[in-house]
Amino acid sequence: MDMGIAGRKAIVCGASKGLGKGCALALAREGVELVLNARSAGPLEQTAAEIRTSTGATVTAVATDVTTEAGRAALLAACPDPDILVTNSGGPPAGDFRNWSGEDWMKALNGNMVTHILLIKAVIDGMIGRRFGRIVNITSGAVKSPYPNLGLSNGARAGLTGFVAGLARQVSQHNVTINGLLPGSHETDRLRSIIEAGAKAQGIPAAQAIAEAKAAETAKRFGTVEEFGAACAFLCSAHAGYIAGQNLLLDGGSYNGTL
Ligand SMILES: NC(=O)c1ccc[n+]([C@@H]2O[C@H](COP(=O)([O-])OP(=O)(O)OC[C@H]3O[C@@H](n4cnc5c(N)ncnc54)[C@H](OP(=O)(O)O)[C@@H]3O)[C@@H](O)[C@H]2O)c1
What we know:
By secondary structure, this protein is an alpha/beta fold. The chain has helices at 18-29, 41-55, 69-78, 102-130, 151-171, 189-202, 206-216, 225-235, and strands at 9-12, 33-38, 59-63, 84-87, 133-138, 176-183, 247-250. Strands 3-2-1-4-5-6-7 form a seven-stranded parallel β-sheet, with helices on both faces. Helix 1 (18-29) packs parallel to helix 2 and helix 1 crosses helix 8. It starts with 8 loop residues before the first strand and ends in a 9-residue tail after the last strand. Residues 13-20, 37-40, 43, 65-67, 88-91, 138, 140-141, 183, 185-186, 188-191 line the site of NADP nicotinamide-adenine-dinucleotide phosphate.
């Protein structure tokens, strides 16, 4: 299916690897011009080169921390009028809420809620004026089903999702959509490091922990970044203008609910 977005411009945050890279690659395959972001310049440049070579897309890399004001300014300077925005950043640490200070909470809220909202604020009026905009926020399955040891993530992402639920309904009339993509367990460095840390704590081999984690999934496997990227490309497509304010859970059915 032609997604109808060739020639559109996109900012994809947190995109040197993992889910953000999956989204970037899927958009590039649709002929979208990309501005990619991550903090470490080396891996980001490598990903940008890889995407250019495999798709022929125009890709600009902006190595910066998107959770800072200066970082967001650099990103927006490289692409002041995006048609597509994919918000993403690293997830907050796991732990027991009794150990978290106010500062820990502010950091999580900044990284997983406020940063996304400030990026949306910077681009949305331009999208409304041009009568086309697609915003996808990469959040987490935690939005539907909280993880016991990831309270910072559960809280911050619920805040973003609540805010967006209201805003999405104010802008869909302008052909500007905002939706959440909620990853379950996707095979990325972040998932691997979480499972490996758990394996170490339990004193079991990492390979065993990974096998057990896959067995615990309803689909008996993890999701791939390619599957995640394809869902993102569809939500960003010309065909998805009537999908607004939704939260699409990609977890192979592990969330046990009818709706
Ligand atoms: N994978 C899963 O199964 C899963 C499940 C639920 C939720 N999530 C959430 O989905 C998001 C992406 O996860 P992932 O698995 O793709 O992680 P990942 O493999 O660790 O990739 C994260 C990407 O974001 C970049 N990044 C991190 N912090 C950044 C910042 N402050 N500014 C700019 N770029 C930043 C990283 O590059 P640099 O380090 O160089 O900046 C990297 O490119 C995270 O918020 C994660 O918590 C993932």
